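Changelog-adjacent note: as of this version, every example in the card shows the full chain rather than a window. The one below runs 123 residues end to end.
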Amino acid sequence: MTAVQKKRVLLAEDDASMRKFIEVILVKAGYDVTSAQDGMEAMNAVGENAFDIVVADAIMPNLSGYELCRLIRAKYAATAIPCIILSGLESNPSDERFSDEFLVKDTGLKDNLLEAVARLTRP
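Full-length structure tokens:
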């Protein structure tokens, strides 16, 4: 990807080591990544910048990933920013309606995340 073609990813993850791990994966794959420590920080970033996709941890302080995606969809419906929820737990089907993809933080996370981000940001 050239600098002009780079897709912008907003990453919201409260665990610093997991946030860095995911950030490195996405940057090495050619994405421009903005990281947030929680859902509120991520929501503020969405109001200030344009993103092609949001990747959010399901459970975070201040604002969960589910709530973040729900608020983004309610406030920025016209932009249709895709959302990916990441979790170390099993999915909650009632909350999945606010995301485009649900991924478990397991040994396949890297490949699953890169595939989902590429698919959901395709023009």
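Structural remarks: The two ends are 14 Å apart (CA to CA).
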